[in-house]
Structure formats: structure tokens, C-alpha cells
Write a structure and sequence with these properties.
Layout lengths: L2 E5 L3 H13 L3 E5 L2 H10 L4 E5 L7 H7 L5 E5 L4 H9 L4 E4 L4 H38 L7 H13 L6 E4 L6 H10 L8 E5 L5 H9 L16 H4 L4 E5 L6 H13 L1 E3 L6 E3 L3 E6 L3 H7 L4 H7 L2 E4 L10 H16 L8 H9 L5 H15 L6 H7 L1
Helix pairs in contact: 2-3, 8-10, 13-15, 14-16
């Protein structure tokens, strides 16, 4: 229940207000002058303050200025209209004249508390959004100061503002999807959708429907018309992850879409124009796939306008301290845990480790250490849990 402070130099007024408000279920404290009211409010926060304007010593307007973060309702028996207006300009929620009407008192109290609660909820949501944006931005960031990562960031900065297609290569877990998100977030399409497709996770018989959409009845299970990823990404960016696993039939249609800027849904003969920037990524050597006949050379050249290679973590171990600090911070925040300290010996042990799973594996190890290891994290913890 809300806690209310009543500040008034008239004992009868403050006691009456206390009795009425407590009868309504509120917790009420009283103060006999402005100075003691300010002292009480600084010791404990109040949801609402009723304050007389005309008081000896510190008057109500001075109290209002001292406690600007509190919700105030000013009361007075002989204040002018100008005084009331001044109180409202200084942030008071409302102004009541003595003798106070009971119904007005209760309605104003409820309205003031409802607004205070709404403001609290808005502030909470705003903070949640701020934290979420920070988390999202942290997922779209290449962490490190090595020459290899600086080179990747430099290419991203140069290519992001264009509509050039980018082919991102690198081993599993290096952060190819992070590169794609960075390019999109820095591009002129940033306010438009970024649609991601993992080509390796979609069965070959469904990849065309997933990318280009389908019409109702075009195959078993097609119970309604459905837009594909190209249409969903119209005006924005389409990220084709693990494109080296795409079937040759789908590759042919993707090539046509890139050449003509239009697609055709499965089961339709109608073409649909699309304005899509395509980013692609793979952990395969596409030139080897071309030699084996599993990847179209003409599609490779369409995609490989700007090549970006993301290095293995073993090739940039000087970035490990920064990555550990980054994961320590964001994982602790996500899980509501306190951050842990990593000893210099622990960091050195992580730098000596072979990271077959690259940055993704390092993140998993840091999360495991935050849950299972002591604080500070020691070299022995690394040997036990890494």
C-alpha cells in the first residue's frame, strides 16, 4: 500500500488527513513544518506528499523545490490563484483549498498515486528497453584489438554504407553472423528488416519455399499463400548463412533473383519485384565446392563482390582478455549474477587453450566458469572447466 507524508503546521488538519487516509488503507506519516517534512522525506521515500503552502520558516513551495522527485499535492486555506499556479508550474500534481472536500481528497489521492505508478512503470520499461538495446548492440559488435579484427572492422566500415553484396567466410563459431548484423546496422537499410536464413538447417525440398514463398495448394501442407524470406526482407537485408549447403536448384533461383531483382513463389507464374541486399556466409571453401560441382561458379561471383574472412580465435589470442571481459559482463547481466574476476594466470591459461569452437566455445566456457568456478577464477578452474 502507498505511503503518504502530510506536512502541515495545523495539528487538526494533519491529524484529520492522517485519519481519513489511513481509513482508506494508506500508510501515513505527519510532519509539523517544512523542515521536518524534508528531513522525513530524505530518510524514506514517499509515494505522495500533501503539503501546506503557508507555513512558518520553510513554506510549501520551498519544500516542493527541495523534494522535486516526489509527487506533491499542495493545500492552503488562503493562497492566491497566482500561488496555486506557481505550485503547479514547479511540479505539484494538484492544488486543494481548505476546507478540503472529502470526495475531492480521495479522488485526487488516487489519481496522483495512479500517475506515480504509471511513471514508475514507464521508467522501468525504459530501463528494460535500454538494457535490451545494449544487449542487442553488444551482440552486433566485433570484440578485439588484434590486427586481424581491425582489418575486418575496417572492411565493414567501408562496405556498410553501400549496397554491395558481401561473402563472409570463416570457421564455425568465429562470428560471421555478427559481421552480417554489423553491416546491416551501419547501412542505410538499418531501419528495415534484417532477415536471417540458415540454409543448412532447412531441408533441401523446403529451401525454395522458405526463400521464395509458395501458393496455397502448391504442395502437400501448403494450406495458404506464404511470403518467403526475399519478400520479408524487401527494403532491408537478407542474410544467407551457410550458403555452401544450399541445393543447386535453389542456387539457380537465388542467382536469378540477384540478376533480376525479382522472385516467383513456388506454384505461381507471377513475378514479384524485391529490393534486397544479400549478405552470405559459409564455413566451406566455395572454390573447392565449385570444383566438385556442388556450387555454381556464377552465383559465387555474384555473391563474392566484397569478401570478408573472419579469423579463427587461435589466430587472434591477444583478443581473449577483451572477449572474456565482454562475456563476463553480458552473461552476468543476463543471468542476474555478479561479475567474477579472472586472475592473470586464468587469462594466460585461456590464451594457451586450443579453441576449435572459436569465439562461440569461449563464450560457453566463460558462462560455465561464471556458474561453477570460485571467485576469482583461477588457473585450476580453467583446467577443470575449459
Amino acid at each position: 500500500m502507498a505511503r503518504i507524508l502530510v506536512i502541515d503546521d495545523e495539528r487538526a488538519i494533519r491529524n484529520t488527513l492522517k485519519e481519513i487516509l489511513e481509513f482508506e488503507g494508506y500508510t501515513v506519516d505527519i510532519a509539523q513544518d517544512g523542515k521536518s517534512g524534508v528531513e522525513a522525506a530524505r530518510k524514506q521515500p514517499y509515494d505522495l506528499v500533501y503539503c501546506d503552502i503557508k507555513m512558518p520558516g520553510m513554506d510549501g513551495l520551498e519544500v516542493l523545490e527541495q523534494l522535486k522527485d516526489s509527487t506533491f499535492i499542495m493545500i492552503s486555506g488562503h493562497a492566491t490563484v497566482e500561488t496555486a499556479v506557481e505550485a503547479l508550474k514547479k511540479g505539484a500534481f494538484d492544488f486543494l483549498e481548505k476546507p478540503i472536500d472529502l470526495n475531492r481528497l480521495l479522488v485526487t489521492t488516487k489519481n496522483a498515486l495512479d500517475r506515480q505508478q504509471l511513471q514508475t512503470e514507464v521508467q522501468t520499461k525504459t530501463e528494460e528497453v535500454r538494457k535490451l538495446r545494449k544487449q542487442l548492440s553488444s551482440k552486433n559488435e566485433m570484440i578485439g584489438c588484434s590486427a586481424a579484427i581491425k582489418h575486418v572492422r575496417d572492411i565493414i566500415d567501408r562496405v556498410a554504407a553501400t549496397d554491395a553484396r558481401v561473402l563472409i567466410t570463416g570457421s564455425n563459431g568465429t562470428g560471421k553472423e555478427v559481421v552480417a548484423r554489423m553491416i546491416h546496422s551501419l547501412s542505410q537499410r538499418a531501419k528495415q528488416p534484417l532477415v536471417e536464413v540458415n540454409c543448412a538447417a532447412i531441408p533441401s525440398e523446403l529451401i525454395e519455399s522458405e526463400l521464395f514463398g509458395h501458393m496455397k495448394g502448391s504442395f502437400t501442407g501448403a494450406v495458404k499463400d506464404r511470403a518467403g524470406k526475399f519478400e520479408q526482407a524487401d527494403g532491408g537485408t537478407l542474410f544467407l548463412d551457410e550458403i555452401g549447403d544450399m541445393s543447386l536448384a535453389a542456387q539457380t533461383k537465388v542467382l536469378r533473383a540477384l540478376q533480376e531483382n525479382e522472385i516467383t513463389r513456388v506454384g505461381s507464374d507471377k513475378t514479384i519485384s524485391v529490393n534486397v541486399r544479400v549478405l552470405a556466409a559459409t564455413n566451406k571453401n566455395l572454390k573447392d565446392e565449385i570444383a566438385k560441382g556442388t556450387f555454381r561458379e556464377d552465383l559465387f561471383h555474384r555473391l563474392n563482390v566484397i569478401p570478408v574472412h573472419v579469423p579463427d580465435l587461435d589466430d587472434r589470442k591477444e583478443d581473449i582478455p577483451l572477449l572474456v571481459d565482454h562475456f563476463n559482463r553480458i552473461i552476468s547481466s543476463e543471468q542476474g549474477r555478479a561479475e567474477k574476476t579472472f586472475s592473470p594466470q586464468a587469462i594466460a591459461a585461456l590464451q594457451q587453450h586450443h579453441w576449435q569452437g572459436n569465439v562461440r566455445e569461449l563464450r560457453n566456457v566463460v558462462e560455465r566458469l561464471l556458474i561453477l568456478a570460485d571467485n576469482p577464477v583461477s588457473e585450476q578452474d580453467i583446467k577443470t572447466f575449459a
